[in-house]
Write a structure and sequence with these properties.
This protein is of the alpha/beta class. The protein contains ten helices and 17 strands. Helix 6 packs across helix 10. Residues 230-420 form the Peptidase M28 domain.
């Protein structure tokens, strides 16, 4: 009997360790599955409002449903929000010396352009009333208080008041992708057509030996409404307090030459961890908090999704939210750099809580500079304590090479476990007190 009694703790410990390793293997496998799907080519970089974002939202909803998490959006798991309403170029044409230029590559209609036609014989360096003006961007006086788009708008308004029928900007140093991104801004029409041309066309327009140019342009727009979709799940423990766990799943879509930015680290890594935390917390014995699981879209659009949620939280009472944890870029853990945690100063209780659960072999670096610039900031503005987990010092430099096979999945699991343990540690604690900071990183 003594022999059996002596061996029993060892047997139990061995069984526990074996079960834990099995659970970790399952979580690691799931993390890779989630990231691989979110980064697949058919999702085209998960740009907010694009078809790929909708595919991602459907996948996240199905995964939460399979886990047994309840829907908490306006339409099942989904919460749709408007990013912007406006217009975008539609079938615009520009012919130079009877040669048709390629829209989006050789010329781009500027967002403040009027939807009109213009044609004429244009002489270099001669700006005549009732004709198209050629404006050399290198000759535009820079203004440190204005963006490049604002400078172009100013020059277009001046030209319109002087009788120009249209303007063409050449010798600009911007990339076509940068100019196209200006359409995300809502600006008033300057009254005349305005286009930007690429470097190869600029060489033609700026040629010292050039004579007159035959130019014919037709500019038109169509109305657009860009919407994004948050995915919201809820574990209802009938508790008085709620914890929100979030990660943004949108990314930058496609760049020049239709290059897809897969966004494995930014932020399929955080989104995959969010799904796994939902699965683990659904079966956990932690019952003193309700758990809201939110996959935000619109982070790359100025935190649009999280800002919308905090203004339209529906059945989740923000006054009863204990804290919010955000995971944004957690797939690049390096032992020397460690797990970096922002928002630490949003509650005086955070250092002791984290210190009590962080593994001794895991380096933790506190970022005490402020609330940060990811989705947790929307909650910080509502006086809710926040934590922001990340592992990449560069935090979001878009790269076509940010692919699933580049991630440190064991490191992602380390961050996931730390978040889980923090939730467990706070389950029986009083509601955290919010502490405002003046600095925001």
């Amino acid at each position: 009997m003594k022999k059996i009694t002596w061996l029993l703790p060892l047997v139990c410990t061995t069984l526990f360790v074996g079960a834990q390793k099995k659970n970790d293997r399952k979580t690691l496998s799931n993390l890779q599955t989630h990231v691989t799907y979110l980064c697949s080519d058919k999702l085209e970089g998960r740009q907010t409002g694009a078809p790929g974002e909708q595919l991602a939202a459907a996948y996240l909803s199905s995964q939460l449903e399979q886990t047994g998490v309840s829907p908490k959006g306006d339409n099942g798991f989904l919460q749709t929000f408007t990013i912007r309403e406006g217009r975008e170029p539609d079938n615009c044409t520009l012919n130079l010396n009877h040669q048709k230029l390629v829209p989006g590559k050789q010329f781009i209609t500027l967002p403040f352009s009027a939807g009109k036609s213009a044609k004429g014989e244009v002489l270099p360096a001669v700006n005549e009333p009732d004709n198209i003006w050629l404006i050399n961007v290198k000759e535009i006086e820079a203004d440190p208080n204005k963006s490049r788009m604002e400078l172009y708008l100013r020059e277009t308004e001046v030209a319109a008041k002087s009788g120009a029928s249209a303007v063409i900007f050449y010798n600009g140093q911007e990339t076509p992708a940068e100019v196209s991104s200006w359409h995300k801004q809502s600006v008033k029409s300057a009254g005349i057509p305005a286009v930007w041309v690429s470097s190869d066309i600029s060489k033609i327009l700026g040629n010292d030996d050039a004579n007159a140019f035959q130019i014919d342009m037709k500019i038109a727009f169509k109305a657009v409404k860009v919407t994004g979709t948050n995915v919201i799940g809820y574990i209802d423990n009938k508790a008085p307090k709620t914890v929100i766990i979030g990660a943004h799943y949108d990314h930058l879509g496609k760049g020049e030459n239709n290059t897809i930015y897969p966004g494995a680290d930014d932020n399929a890594s955080g989104t995959a961890a969010l799904l796994e935390l939902a699965r683990l917390l659904k079966s956990a014995r932690l019952k003193n908090h309700n758990i809201a699981i939110i996959a935000f879209s619109g982070k790359e659009e100025g935190l649009a999704g999280s800002a919308w949620f905090t203004a339209h939280s529906g059945g989740i009472d923000l006054s009863q939210v204990n804290y919010m944890i955000n995971m944004d870029i957690i797939g690049d853990l390096d032992a020397s750099r460690g797990v970096q945690i922002g928002g630490i100063s949003s509650s005086a209780g955070w250092p002791a809580i984290i210190g009590s659960v962080a593994a001794k072999d895991t380096k933790v670096v506190y970022d005490s500079t402020g609330a940060g610039t990811s989705d947790h900031l929307s909650f910080y503005k509502k006086n809710i304590p926040v934590l922001y987990f990340y592992t990449n010092a560069h935090k979001g430099t878009p790269e076509p090479g940010d692919k699933p096979d580049k991630l440190n999945y064991d490191g992602t699991l380390t961050v996931l476990k730390l978040v889980y343990d923090i939730i467990g540690k706070t389950d029986n604690m009083e509601k955290l007190a919010f502490s405002a900071t003046t600095a925001r990183k």
